[in-house]
Amino acid sequence: MNIDLIAENIQLFLLVFARIFALLSVAPLLSSAAIPGPARVGLCLLTAVIVFPWIADDGYPMPPQALGFIFLLVGEVL
Fold it and tell me: What is the pTM of this model?
């Protein structure tokens, strides 16, 4: 696990995490009340850490302004 890669690309990591969290929070098995919230977040974080190096290698242009990043984040969740 390369923490430096995540630290250098924290915005991209947050986008990956948001997309995985949105996907897993509506999945039938993981969206049940029997699975506690912290376990879901932990699973999403672990999945994002595993998937992130492949995404970071391809590169992804980040907007220079915060508002553009917020729009990207909302787009990933929707």
Answer: 0.82
